[in-house]
């Protein structure tokens, strides 16, 4: 089925796969392969070390504390939020203001929604490498106990895929906002990612938040995503607030919220697109 | 739906840009970019839109390529309404804008072009063959494997030009395709445009330009546009025939302070444009007929202007533009580069 009216499935598919190819070229071609490999390892490890430093030295927590694996895994998977969500929405700014190509894309028979999702694929691949490196570093250097034999792989895979899809749809939604604002919208994306980091329980259980923020956190699909990933990898989730939900309920919530995000992001993007065409913003170059 | 014999049709097409209060700074809150434009471009035509910067050419192209919504009127491309069904329009068109250096810098020339061919559903084998052929034509074949951040602006522009033709579109919009290019490259591209249409007589090109000679050399028909309005639309010959009864002269005068004031009210003078060039003043005159020349020379003499040369010319599109608009075409034209000014001196008609 085509993602937007009038695009055929074939057009949507070729928009998606060509955009994925383009995204990968942009992600991987900026330096020599060796440096790219080094960057792909050093960046997530450095990120993990910052967290560990804050946890051990500043908060004086122990690596053998039951909370540590929860924090570490939540933080590791949060890499996807920055990568996929920001990557998809940033493609709009990049194509419009940096490469000056958005108007040519819009004049071509391509499905822009599928195109944006395609641009997110490369970010998802790079983020997957970073998450894997972080988890490996945690297991080898910090004693993180993740036993492959005890991981619920099916649960992990389904939850992981649903969460990634949800993030990509959220990225398209942000991309719509980007379409009708200027280059500085990058900061809106950063602000959203920062707020989600606080509210979805990436680095602490939701239970420690004030009641009001707990409710906000419980309304976020990301909260359930991280909970599902922790359960699949570590055998149990973080905190008591979500403990009452079964694994099946978690997946149901994730599936429902992903579907809702797909519909919402389509509606928001189409509305933004209409506004951008009415205001003449599709080829805007703000030079900010 | 517009007739299928037409590649492009517009009816009372208008576009008004609203300016935010804080950006208007006391100026007008609305800018009329297109004012009830009616156009018909036949299939197989090379149709030119000729006008100065800010005339509304690019706005019109943006609407026709579905990038901008009109605020009034309607437009059809390939018989399809651009507002009601933009998706269908995009299957029939391609566009190239000149004077910009867009492209994905980390990709090679070939990769950039191949990628766009994919978006249009052209298979890789055909795409690579066309890319090779087209790059050869524009003299960029040896740069096919070069990442485009290594290319000069002109080379990038050539690449974008190729991108437009690569998809073999039914209707191609070329927005100032030779803007900023050197003479030789611009000539190569113009020759290619002519050859391409000769080989593909069922294709249509809509070209905007502010280069008179480009419009004259390439276009089957030309619409002269200024301040959002179409002032005339005809073949270049047809437009020039409008000045057949009038006389066009070029005068070089050693010095002549304020020519407009001097020639204001001289009987038979329809339009005057003047420019400082190499220490003398060059006057372009559109006169009612040759008899009006003597009073002009007398007025120049009274103002102590020393005549260096006098030339009677066949009318050009520049003269047509001057006659219709009352000023020379603007930047890009030699007169403009020499601080050209023009006015209707208000003489008798």
Brief write-up:
Chain A is mainly alpha-helical and 288 residues long. In chain A, 73% of the residues lie in helices and 0% in strands.
Give a description of the structure.
Chain A has 288 residues and is mainly α. Chain A has one domain. Helices cover 73% and strands 0% of the residues of chain A. In chain A, helix 6 packs parallel to helix 10 and helix 9 packs antiparallel against helix 10. Chain B is α/β, with parallel strands linked by helices and 349 residues long. Chain B folds into 2 domains: 235 residues, Rossmann fold; 102 residues, Alpha-Beta Plaits (2-Layer Sandwich), CATH 3.30.70. A 6-stranded mixed β-sheet of chain B has the order 6-7-8-3-9-10, sandwiched between helices. In chain B, strands 14-11-13-12-15 form a 5-stranded antiparallel β-sheet, with helices on both faces. In chain B, helix 4 crosses helix 5, helix 4 runs parallel beside helix 6 and helix 5 crosses helix 6. The two termini of chain B are 43 Å apart.
Name its key features.
heterodimer; A: 288 residues; mainly alpha; 73% helix; 0% strand; B: 349 residues; alpha/beta; Rossmann fold; Alpha-Beta Plaits; 2 domains; 6-stranded mixed β-sheet; 5-stranded antiparallel β-sheet; 13 helices; 15 strands
Task: Give the secondary structure arrangement, pairings included.
The complex is a heterodimer of chains A (288) and B (349).
Chain A: H1 9-28, H2 33-58, H3 67-98, H4 102-106, H5 112-141, H6 153-179, H7 186-199, H8 211-218, H9 221-234, H10 247-279
Chain B: E1 6-18, H1 21-24, E2 30-42, E3 46-50, H2 57-64, E4 72-77, E5 80-81, H3 86-90, E6 93-97, H4 109-119, H5 124-137, H6 153-166, E7 171-175, H7 183-199, E8 204-209, H8 212-218, E9 221-226, E10 229-234, H9 236-241, E11 247-253, H10 259-263, E12 269-277, E13 280-287, H11 293-302, E14 307-313, H12 317-325, H13 334-337, E15 341-343
Parallel strand pairs in B: 3-8, 3-9, 6-7, 7-8
Antiparallel strand pairs in B: 1-2, 1-4, 4-5, 9-10, 11-13, 11-14, 12-13, 12-15
């Amino acid at each position: 089925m085509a993602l937007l009216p009038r695009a055929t499935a074939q057009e949507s598919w070729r928009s998606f796969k060509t955009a994925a190819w383009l995204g990968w070229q942009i992600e991987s071609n900026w330096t020599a392969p060796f440096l790219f490999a080094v960057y792909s390892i050093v960046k997530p490890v450095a990120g993990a070390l910052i967290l560990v430093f804050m946890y051990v030295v500043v908060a004086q927590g122990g690596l053998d504390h039951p909370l540590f694996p929860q924090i570490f895994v939540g933080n590791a998977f949060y890499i996807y939020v920055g990568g996929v969500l920001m990557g998809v929405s940033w493609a709009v700014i990049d194509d419009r203001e940096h490469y000056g190509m958005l108007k040519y894309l819009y004049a071509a028979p391509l499905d822009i929604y599928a195109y944006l999702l395609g641009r997110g694929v490369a970010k998802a691949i790079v983020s997957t490498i970073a998450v894997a490196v972080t988890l490996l570093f945690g297991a080898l250097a910090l004693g993180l106990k993740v036993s492959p034999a005890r991981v619920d792989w099916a649960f992990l895979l389904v939850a992981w895929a649903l969460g990634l899809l949800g993030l990509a749809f959220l990225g398209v939604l942000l991309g719509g906002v980007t379409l009708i604002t200027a280059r500085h919208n990058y900061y809106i994306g950063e602000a959203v990612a920062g707020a989600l980091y606080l509210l979805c329980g990436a680095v602490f259980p939701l239970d420690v938040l004030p009641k009001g923020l707990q409710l906000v956190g419980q309304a976020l699909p990301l909260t359930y995503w991280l909970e599902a990933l922790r359960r699949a990898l570590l055998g149990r989730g973080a905190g008591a607030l979500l403990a009452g939900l079964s694994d099946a309920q978690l997946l149901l919530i994730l599936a429902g919220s992903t579907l809702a995000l797909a519909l919402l992001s389509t509606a928001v993007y189409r509305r933004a697109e209409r506004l951008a065409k009415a205001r003449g913003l599709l080829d805007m170059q703000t030079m900010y | 739906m517009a007739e299928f014999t037409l590649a492009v049709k517009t009816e009372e097409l208008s576009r008004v840009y609203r300016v935010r209060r804080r950006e208007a700074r006391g100026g007008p809150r609305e800018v009329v970019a297109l004012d009830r434009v009616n156009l018909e471009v036949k299939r197989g035509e090379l149709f030119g839109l000729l006008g100065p910067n800010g005339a509304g050419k690019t706005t019109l192209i943006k609407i026709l390529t579905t990038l901008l919504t009109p605020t009034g009127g309607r437009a059809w491309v390939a018989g399809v309404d651009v507002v009601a069904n933009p998706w269908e329009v995009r299957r029939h068109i391609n566009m190239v804008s000149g004077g910009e250096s867009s492209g994905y810098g980390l990709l090679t020339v070939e990769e950039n072009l191949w990628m766009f061919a994919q978006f249009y559903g052209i298979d890789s084998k055909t795409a690579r063959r066309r890319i090779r052929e087209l790059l050869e034509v524009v003299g960029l074949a040896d740069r096919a494997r070069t990442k485009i951040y290594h290319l000069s602006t002109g080379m990038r522009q050539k690449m974008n030009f190729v991108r437009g033709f690569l998809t073999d579109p039914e209707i191609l919009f070329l927005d100032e395709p030779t803007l900023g290019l050197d003479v030789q490259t611009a000539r190569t591209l113009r020759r290619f445009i002519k050859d391409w249409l000769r080989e593909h007589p069922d294709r249509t090109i809509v070209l905007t330009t502010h280069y008179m000679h480009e419009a004259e050399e390439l276009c089957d028909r030309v619409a002269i546009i200024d301040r959002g309005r179409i002032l005339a639309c005809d073949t270049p010959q047809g437009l020039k025939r409008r000045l057949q009864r009038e006389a066009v002269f070029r005068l070089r005068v050693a010095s002549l302070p304020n020519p407009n004031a001097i020639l204001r009210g001289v009987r038979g003078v329809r339009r005057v444009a003047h420019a400082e060039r190499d220490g003398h003043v060059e006057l372009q005159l559109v006169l009612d007929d040759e008899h009006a020349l003597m009073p002009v020379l007398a007025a120049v003499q009274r103002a102590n202007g020393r005549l260096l040369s006098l030339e009677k010319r066949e009318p050009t599109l520049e003269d047509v533009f001057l006659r219709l608009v009352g000023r020379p075409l603007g930047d890009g034209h030699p007169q403009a580069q020499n601080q050209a000014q023009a006015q209707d001196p208000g003489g008798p008609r």
